[in-house]
Design goal:
It is a single chain. By secondary structure, the protein is α/β, with parallel strands linked by helices. The protein has two domains: 8-158 and 345-376, Medium-chain alcohol dehydrogenases, catalytic domain (Quinone Oxidoreductase, Chain A, domain 1, Alpha-Beta Complex), CATH 3.90.180.10; 178-316, NAD(P)-binding Rossmann-like Domain (Rossmann fold, 3-Layer(aba) Sandwich). It has twelve helices and 16 strands. It has helices at residues 48-57, 80-86, 107-110, 165-168, 174-186, 201-212, 227-234, 249-257, 271-279, 304-307, 322-334, 353-380; strands at 8-15, 23-29, 36-44, 65-66, 71-78, 94-97, 129-131, 134-138, 148-152, 156-158, 193-197, 217-221, 238-240, 263-266, 287-290, 311-314. The strands form three sheets. The chain has a six-stranded parallel β-sheet, sandwiched between helices. The protein has a five-stranded mixed barrel with strand order 1-2-7-8-4. A five-stranded antiparallel β-sheet has the order 9-3-5-6-10. The longest helix is centred in the last third of the chain and has 28 residues, at 353-380.
Length: 386
């Protein structure tokens, strides 16, 4: 392309400081250096993790930054070493940036037991972004709220050239996170009973993953009853609204299933709900997976909940090794064996990013406050049968 090797000026949504609206600015995006790829972002989704960094973590050292990590685009240019060493990325390729890198060389990448890498794309030491003479930090190595971004080649998945970028961008985070948590991390078994706590996009994807794994019964738990009809589309068989009960939700689930669920997945990012998800599992062999992200609170649990045989696990990006798995997930979607279109609720422009944030804030504010209230009430009447 004519822009290769040159600084590109483009629009980006800049977060100058915590808890403030994003500002649409003209920024400069430097050319990619060795082992880097500059990508023209065609589509990006808004994820709760973006809002968490902006509104909840409140870490001043994380600003100014360009948020966004659930995007898809087209390769504009590549650093020379990418071509010489790997020969796999070329101008015009369709790609998905990844917030979890995969070098394919380190101990973790070679292990089938982990999707982590010793090369941390989530904390790049330098940025190719500047605005008004200031360097902008790159959020989790991707920064897709910009018309152009520069990403390390270890954190880029090359995908089917026929894939619709406005749909498959969702595979950059939320859908893979929930779906993989069920299939890869929990390893849901055919004929099993599952409970998914929180029916946002990640939770719906977890429901879809449970169904794909052959679960016989999938119980969706959310305080918004309007979500159940949507959850049924993805495979949920039952719905429980904690507001409808005057007992802990774990006790409700144990009574519904006689012993407790085989697998539970927490997709809220609330430590109290994480505890409820674990306690809802059958003793002896139940598996609970923490999917929702937070680092603001510690988890408190009675040791006998684990000593009795339950397993507690965590999942990042659904356990997927991104460069290998994301192209496969795109193929599954292209083969009409994975739902993505059904997750999309709005189509908006980059200039409307703050409107999109407000829509998500309204939903999150209601849901999280009600989860906290319900859990507080349940804590006051909690019983511990095991």
């Amino acid at each position: 392309m004519a822009t290769a090797g040159k600084v590109i000026k483009c629009k980006a949504a800049v977060a100058w400081e915590p808890n403030k609206p994003l500002v649409i600015e003209e920024i400069e995006v430097a050319p990619p250096e060795a082992n880097e790829i500059r990508i023209k972002i065609v589509a990006t989704a808004l994820c709760h993790t973006d809002l968490y960094h902006l509104l909840e973590s409140m870490q001043p050292q994380g600003f100014p930054t360009v948020l966004g990590h659930e995007g898809a685009g087209i390769v504009e240019s590549v650093g020379c070493a990418v071509i010489l060493q790997y020969c796999c990325f070329f101008s015009g390729d369709k790609v998905i940036p990844l917030f979890i890198s995969q070098c394919r060389q380190c101990h973790f990448c070679k292990s089938p037991r982990s999707n982590q890498s010793r090369h941390d794309a989530m904390a790049p030491p330098t940025s190719r972004f500047t605005c008004k003479g200031k360097e902008l930090l790159q959020f989790v190595g991707t920064s897709t709220f910009s018309e152009y971004t520069v990403v390390n080649e270890m954190a880029v998945a090359k995908i089917d050239p026929m894939a619709p970028l406005d749909k498959v961008c969702l595979l950059g985070c939320g859908i893979c996170t929930g779906y993989g948590a069920a299939v890869n991390t929990a390893k849901v078994e055919p004929g099993s009973t599952c409970a998914v706590f929180g029916l946002g996009a990640v939770g719906m994807a977890a429901v879809m993953g449970c169904k794909a794994a052959g679960a016989k019964r999938i119980i969706g738990i959310d305080i918004n009853p309007e979500k159940f009809e949507k959850a049924k589309v993805f495979g949920a068989t039952d719905f429980v609204n904690p507001k409808d009960h005057d007992k802990p939700i774990s006790q409700v689930l144990i009574e519904m299933t006689k012993w407790g669920v085989d697998f539970s997945l927490e997709c809220v990012g609330n430590v109290s709900v994480m505890r409820s998800a674990l306690e809802s599992c059958v003793q002896g062999y139940g598996v609970s997976v923490i999917v929702g992200w937070t680092d603001l609170r510690d988890i408190a649990i009675r040791p006998n909940q684990l000593i009795s045989g339950r397993t507690w696990k965590g999942s990042t990006f659904g356990g997927f090794k991104g460069r290998d798995a994301v192209p496969q997930m795109v193929k599954v979607y292209m083969d009409k064996k994975l739902m993505l279109d059904e997750f999309i609720t709005h189509h908006m422009t980059l200039d409307q990013i703050n409107d999109a944030i407000e829509l998500m804030k309204q939903s999150l504010r209601t849901n999280l406050n009600q989860w906290r209230l319900i859990r507080t009430l349940h804590d006051n009447i909690r019983t511990h049968p095991y």
